Amino acid sequence: MLKTPIYMDNHATTRTDPRVLDVMLPYFTEKFGNAASRNHSFGWEAEEGVVRARNQIAALIGGKAKEIIFTSGATESDNLAVKGVLEFYKDKGNHIITCVTEHKAILDSCRALERAGKATVTYLAVDKYGMVDPDDVRSAITDKTVLISIMWANNEIGTIHPIAEIGKIAKEKGIVFHSDAVQAVGHIPVDVEKNGVDLLSLTAHKLYGPKGCGALWVRSKGPRVRITPIIDGGGHERGMRSGTLNVTGIVGFGAAAEIAAKEMNEEAERLREMRNKLQAGLFERLDEIYLNGHPTERLPGNLNVSFAYVEGESLLMGINDVAVSSGSACTSATLEPSYVIRALGTNEELAHSSIRFGVGRFNTDEEVDYVTERVTKEVRRLREMSPLYEMAKEGIDLKSVSWKA
Ligand code: PLP
Known about the structure:
By secondary structure, this protein is α/β, with parallel strands linked by helices. Helices cover 39% and strands 16% of the residues. The protein folds into 2 domains: 126 residues, Aspartate Aminotransferase, domain 1 (Alpha-Beta Complex), CATH 3.90.1150.10; 243 residues, Type I PLP-dependent aspartate aminotransferase-like (Major domain) (Aspartate Aminotransferase, domain 2, 3-Layer(aba) Sandwich), CATH 3.40.640.
């Protein structure tokens, strides 16, 4: 039996896996100690859980357990990476290279440093598929560049960047390389050694772990990367992130990482099949629909499409038993089209009509079929009410029409 509402927005967050919850629960009750309490068994028990999680997470990304710094989530990890590197290496330089489709946690951290007069930032453009060109990274490097920050995979369009190539350039030039790998870790292979990454942002809630728990992985050797903390206090996490550890969250994060390491390859195959089925189903049934993002170098569960002549927000309202995202973010008073979709060179109308589907672990084939039919029906209904769609179907070139106010 199909149960609604259907959740297909797994880039926004994922449901905590019941196996992860089982691991977490005792840490709320019997094992509630503070991992920093060194003088009794409650503290030791909590610390044991944290150490296990460090190992589980490090194993998933090919790093060392001691290189994991726990944070409150990837927003903090991104802030710590960007601001922490800039501050530590300020005598060496103040230039950052990043790209226009990064998450706001990176973009706004860069802007804050620019406003404070602490950094100059190059925001690289992307191609029509949302991909950064490694040659552009190389050309942007100056003798003041201290940080390159390029995300592993984009959260809206799923495009996977050529991380290994960028890592090679960064190594060659001796520049610290950070990657926000939030959408990639646990979904596709991420190996910090093979890809020459120096800092990596992660968060538990995108890989079926709990919310409010993240990590920044910081390379300790070859070269040793340093950061200045952005939170002062008790000196936890080797002084890089003070604050009592979220032990329940951390043990859940670890369990989620271990499950991902075991099941990721098989799961990716299953998600890719479901995503492809959804994509084929929509493209077979509807005309004037456009794929956003890279056709092949894309996260397995990601599908981002624009339905011409349909407002993304109206479509979402019409399919209120299906949870997906539109490319328009309701920011304060204005409804702005997604800056990520706009960066692909897509026109404003098509950007407004984009929808992001995120197929995940708990979705079924039956749900994919239901969503395909539901979206198709609603797009057709909205287009029936659209004079523009009607005109376009009659062969009128809408660009040649001069509209009167
Ligand atoms: N970076 C990317 C690419 C994301 O998708 C997200 C979450 O939406 C974040 C950072 C922020 O992560 P968190 O919710 O853990 O702060």
